[in-house]
Amino acid sequence: MRKAIVALLVLVLLGAAGFWGLTSPAAYALIRGNGQVSPEAASGPARQPNLDSGRTLFFAGGCTSCHAVPNQDDKLRLGGGYALKSPFGTFHVPNISPHKQDGIGSWTTADFVRAMREGISPDGRHYYPAFPYTSYQRMSPEDLGDLFAFIMTLQPVEGRAPGHELPFPYNIRRGLGLWKLAFLDGQAFRPDPGKSESLNRGAYLVNGPGHCAECHSQRNMAGAIIEERRFAGGPDPEGRGIVPNITPHPTGIGGWTPDDLTTLLTTGETPNFDTVGGPMGAVVANTARLPDGDRRAMAEYLLSLPPRQGFKKPE
């Protein structure tokens, strides 16, 4: 009996040690991080950030949609505070303004690159994937450096958002290490040499900074995108209705032309003379500020996706 108890304790200790090791941010960085992208590559001594590129990426990513202070007109005040409701609890979007105490003003470019690609804070904590680093990991180090430099030109905003409101076990942040090993592949975007430059640009914007699949896809029980349902729509992550299918299937954008989709990304108008609203209205407010060539590239890529049946709400 005594031997059995000792064996059980040893197994428990080994299990706890394994969990602690595998969920460590350092373990993720060792296994997946920096696989293709060195944070230092974004801020080498000879490199000057391109603020025009950073501005484009800022609006492609719709940073204002989540991080602007709610209920105020200046969408460039990135003080955070928006409450993002999800099946796992409520996430309060943080301050990413250049404020040195309350925002990210004290971060280095390498800190920013690691947060965007590995979901790890400068003090070594996991970020929850409500911050869509599963998409941002596709961005190049140079683009992340440009984006960070642009954000640093904005007004510092004082004040911090409240902490997340998550029930057990989702409040155990350490457990995200296992989630990342399962669902965060650490791979940067690779252009397809068999496709046009425009199509590759669209693929990069949609899958990287634009993170379109994060809302327009069905998710599994762990909250990760189901690859076979990517872009085919699904339940609204905030629990209000259904997010539409954006593949060229008859239940999605089948029959649309590149001009139709470019117009939607510019004005919000659909081919049937409707106008998008809600969260997509905020998305269009950002895509409208992109160069026309980028909107057309996004439209070209989305219309090249495999058609997939849209999500049907269970009856």
Automatic annotation (TrEMBL):
InterPro entries associated with the record: Cyt_c-like_dom, Cyt_c-like_dom_sf, Cytochrome_c-type_DH
Protein's UniProt name: Cytochrome c
Keywords in alphabetical order: Heme, Iron, Metal-binding
Top-level taxon in the UniProt lineage: Bacteria
Species for this entry: Microvirga terrae
Pfam entry (one): Cytochrom_C
Gene3D superfamilies, per the entry: Cytochrome c-like domain
Domain Cytochrome c: 49-155, 197-306
